[in-house]
Design goal:
36 strands; 541 residues; 9% helix; globular; 37% strand; seven-stranded mixed beta sheet; mainly beta; six-stranded mixed beta sheet
Length: 541
């Protein structure tokens, strides 16, 4: 049976590849998910490993590559991987969150069939169920430009991926139990850089050369600031968009965000600190790594350079300076600025307000008063098989209701090819970070205070950055323009994983009445079926 299943899967994959792009190469991966002992902060913990590695293996690809990733779950609990920033064009079947996919049962496998269609940039993958992310299981994703597509800077000498995030010494099951009990997580115990604590990593460079650093915040609860002692950083990319090449001494990176910077090794030959520290926290956590010049005459000197700590205005002003490079090519040869997002009329405004209600005596988090609860069947499967009673369209409103919080499997209806304005409003005293699966959006504005229609007068309708994850500062708002150009069931979530787990998320159903492969791929033959979809048939080969 297993060999027959694999044969059918290979036929399906080859058919899909031929349909999607006969000339695009494909890359095959076999990943085994296991528990293993790790000591990132000097204390033995149960980590989630991929092929024995923490962090997991990197994915290095090129625009339009097809990625065939066979994931075998050797844990004693269900497992899923999701792909932060990979748009899954026409293919929310592969998104890897519970709203779209059945978890991989213990002792079984699932093969993801992804195409990084019309994308470039720096991203990461992560485990999406429960609090698995607190145990590892994440890794970096690189999508390089095709050889004939120009990039707006000379090729760097080297390319380093840096995955930074806060870390807890407790097991992920203990953290889940804390949240299930209606309590907040404790303060993190430290920061990790590529799975290691302070001074656990050394990056070797040659004097006079320029290197690319791809930095992602893979943490659970805190924004970070990144800096390199004695060196300037030139920002060149944010989540797949080439940016204006501004120079920074340090860079704020909020939960779920990814950036690329170029650093020229123009200092005397010695070692220097690479520093990550938490933002908007007390106390401030710091982790250091070493930048080692190959001709170094000595180790690091002096204390690690300090950075911003609680300053909101500093961070807001920096965020506004991150803009598109309009003349640079993206994944295609045409300039990024050839899509004039500011000249397209929006068809709908969606206002989303986060809150922290107490429901049934327990702490929850909500969007427009609705605290999301998972259904017994993935929403995408319920939609495909037309299973009643799993979710209701319109179970979350386009605007804040002002009422008390309540539990609901919240799904918002949307039309394919609509062009929407989304306003995230944050009345709380903590920074929020939001991610939208399956799409990119244009950041047109962010400011303090209450958003109103008059706020549109100050929108940036020319070179706002396009990305998939954005922050909202305390008692502030952030506004986006987003083309709904990807049919499917898409997760909109807080990147603060405790808030996401306790309900600060919902799904956007982007619907096309045309049943065509031009709009959406069919259900995979090997799709896992669970809940009320169990026992049904996917489709004939």
């Amino acid at each position: 049976m297993r060999s027959l299943w694999w044969s059918l899967l290979v036929v399906q994959i080859l058919f899909l590849l031929g349909f999607s792009n006969g000339e695009s190469p494909y890359r095959w991966y076999n990943w085994n998910i296991t528990y293993g002992d790790i000591y990132p902060l000097g204390v033995k913990q149960q980590g989630i490993l991929i092929n024995g590695q923490f962090p997991g293996p990197p994915i290095d690809s090129v625009t339009n590559d097809n990625l065939i990733i066979n994931v075998f779950n050797s844990l004693d609990e269900p497992f899923l991987l999701s792909w932060n920033g990979i748009q899954q064009r026409r293919n929310s079947w592969q998104d890897g969150v519970y709203g779209t996919n059945c978890p991989i049962p213990p002792g079984q496998n699932f093969t993801y069939v992804l195409q990084v269609k019309d994308q470039i940039g720096s991203f990461f993958y992560f485990p999406s169920l429960a609090m698995h992310k607190a145990a590892g299981g994440y890794g970096g994703i690189i999508i390089r430009s095709r050889p004939l597509i120009p990039i707006p800077f000379p090729p760097p000498t080297g390319d380093y991926t840096i995955l930074v995030g806060d870390w807890f010494k407790q097991n992920h099951t203990d953290l889940k139990a804390i949240l299930d009990g209606g309590n907040d997580l404790p303060f993190p115990d430290g920061l990790l850089v590529n799975g290691r604590g302070s001074n656990g990593l050394t990056f070797t460079v040659d004097q006079g050369r320029t290197y690319r650093f791809r930095i992602s915040n893979v943490g659970l609860t805190t924004a970070i600031n990144f800096r390199i002692q004695g060196h300037k950083m030139v920002l060149v990319e944010a989540e797949g968009t080439h940016t204006l090449q501004n120079t920074y001494e340090s860079l704020d990176i909020h939960l779920g965000q990814s950036y690329s910077v170029l650093v020229t090794m123009d200092q005397p030959g010695q070692d220097y600190y690479i520093v990550a520290s938490t933002r908007f926290t007390s106390p401030v956590l710091t982790a250091t790594s070493i930048l080692h010049y190959s001709n170094s005459a000595g180790g690091v000197s002096g204390p690690p350079p300090g950075g911003p700590t609680i300053e909101i205005d500093w961070s807001l002003n920096q965020a506004r300076s991150v803009r598109q490079n309009l003349t640079a090519s993206g994944p295609r040869p045409n300039p990024q600025g050839s899509y004039h997002y500011g000249l397209v009329n929006t068809t709908r405004t969606i206002r989303l307000v986060n809150s922290a209600p107490v429901i049934n005596g327990k702490k929850r988090y909500a969007v427009n008063s609705v605290s999301f609860i998972p259904s017994d069947t993935p929403l995408k499967l319920a939609d495909y098989f037309k299973i009643p009673g799993v979710f209701n369209l319109g179970s979350i409103q386009d605007y804040p209701t002002g009422g008390g919080g309540y539990l609901q499997t919240s799904v918002m209806a949307a039309d394919f090819r609509a062009y929407v304005e989304i306003v995230f409003e944050n009345p709380e005293d903590t920074v929020q970070s939001w991610h939208i699966d399956g799409h990119i959006f244009f950041v047109v504005g962010m400011d303090g205070g209450q958003w109103s229609a008059a706020s549109r007068l100050n929108y940036n309708l020319r070179d706002g950055i396009s990305r998939c994850t954005i922050q909202v500062y305390p008692r502030s708002w952030t506004a986006l323009y987003m083309p709904l150009d990807n049919v499917g069931m898409w997760n909109i979530r807080s990147e603060n994983w405790a808030r996401q787990y306790l309900g600060q998320q919902f799904y956007l159903r982007v619907y096309s009445p045309v049943n065509s492969w031009r709009d959406e791929y069919p259900i995979p033959i090997g799709a896992l079926l669970c809940g009320r979809a169990s026992g049904r048939k996917t489709r004939p080969l």
